[in-house]
Amino acid sequence: MRLLLDSHVAFWWALSPEKLSAKAHTEISKPKNDVFISVVSVWELGLKVSKGKLQIPKEFGELMCKNGIESIPFRESHAYSSIALPRIHGDPFDRALVAQCLVENFTLVTRDSTLTQYGIQILEG
């Protein structure tokens, strides 16, 4: 499985794993699965930190790497895919993740059930 973690799932994985669904925790933990965090999610989390809405440790990125979670850039192909998406969801960060899932054939790990309307594979976070 190729998993892309939504920002809240990445946060929970690193700092509050008890909030994850049992299935998500199991699949993220499996060594045979490829697990990614988008730079889009890192940006979103950073914006929340700068607004005082969230606190994450400085070593958040190291925690991701240590747990085998790779970062993936937001590429031009992802941008074009996001532009073509129907207007189901207005959050630009979530739309970017959907586009990455479509282009890269990822399963998105999220609690946002609205995103299933895009026809991507979802694993409840």
Short descriptors:
125 residues; alpha/beta; Rossmann fold; 5-stranded parallel β-sheet; 46% helix
**CATH fold assignment:** Rossmann fold
Question: What is the assigned CATH homologous superfamily?
Answer: 5'-nuclease
Approximately what portion of the residues adopt beta-strand conformation? 15-25%
User: How would you describe the shape?
Assistant: globular
Biggest sheet strand order reads 3-2-1-4-5
Instruction: Give a quick account of the main beta sheet: strands, pairing sense, barrel closure.
Output: 5 strands, parallel
CATH first level: which class? Alpha Beta
- How many alpha or pi helices? 6
Please indicate the count of domains.
Answer: 1
Structural class: alpha/beta
User: Which ranges are low-confidence, i.e. pLDDT below 50, for 5 or more consecutive residues?
Assistant: none
Distance between the termini: 15 Å
Q: Report the CATH architecture.
A: 3-Layer(aba) Sandwich
Give helix and strand order, one letter per element, not per position: EHHEHHEHHEE
Relative helix content: 40-55%
Number of strand segments: 5
- The mean pLDDT is 96
